[in-house]
């Protein structure tokens, strides 16, 4: 038992990074750190405050979370008194390639880093830094959670082909794509089509959804070598990118009814998005993020023309997708829950739902060595054993059956009033009748 605990403690620091985001100027709820960094300006900068050993437990101690004593730490008090604040769990490092440290600060910087070897040194630098005002957004995290991007990025390869569906990536066996499997990499993704959903938030608090099913017969896909990231094992991040192109015009309607179309996807339009899965230390994997690189719809009947470009959502927006399983298993899904992305209009969102998909992050490499790339025979379904309709039917039947049994038991317990039938035990009732 102690050995298992020791192993867990050894690996736990690399599972994720703790972070606290706080601001007095803008609500940060639902906004990813990537989008915050992308929208940072010199007038509304991002200030990243770090020390080597930062954890939420360390902050709780400085904030006197376990006592009734007042908070004397300046930084902890600033977080508590901020108008907007929340804690987050970061699976990946924060990419801040254009950041400036306060030691070599230059006017006009949009991303600033305050770093200390210890908590006290970090707080001292934060207290003495005069460039921070109420328009800044603060991120408090570990030094290891920050990547300044000094390493030169690899040049991306160009997407290849316009391959027919069904989509299988990595495209093993495709003679037009020169790809070979690396040792112990066994991730695989199958996709039969997608459904595009547009969410319209009306002013009267009502929300309408229009959807367009796009089967694989109306799609082609392209593939680049860096579109799939597989880990050599069950632990880590697994990323799949889908570059889809429509081969036929598709219209979106409300509830697949005979009503007029609300939006149109034109022939030649692109649907380009990525899915990010994470496998944890215990072997479970789940969808933790998605990025919409490019999609657009043309509005009809009063619905607006929309586009969503380079929009990323995180674990809070993907936790209800039901795209999760365990290492060694593949997951099949006839129709997944839609993942919604912001658009150029805040009242509208565009969602993507997977049709006839099968996902696998890692399985036994020995099977692939003998039989080639294929999905594991151990498979589970995202729908589960019972659908919501069948569960409600079973529950209703149990309630009605219980009512019938109770009624029958009450009828069986009815007895005649026999206290007047035995003259020896009970005095008879005499009714005098007067003429």
UniProtKB/TrEMBL annotation:
Signal peptide positions (record): 1-16
Keyword Transmembrane: yes
GO cellular component: membrane
Segments traversing the membrane: 391-411
Keywords: Membrane, Signal, Transmembrane, Transmembrane helix
Compartments it resides in: Membrane
Superkingdom as given in the UniProt entry: Eukaryota
Topology in membrane: Single-pass membrane protein
Ranges of residues in domain V-type proton ATPase subunit S1/VOA1 transmembrane: 384-422
Classification via InterPro entries: Ac45_acc_su, VAS1/VOA1_TM
Family recorded in the similarity comment: Belongs to the vacuolar ATPase subunit S1 family.
Name this protein carries in UniProt: V-type proton ATPase subunit S1/VOA1 transmembrane domain-containing protein
Classification lineage: Eukaryota, Metazoa, Ecdysozoa, Nematoda, Chromadorea
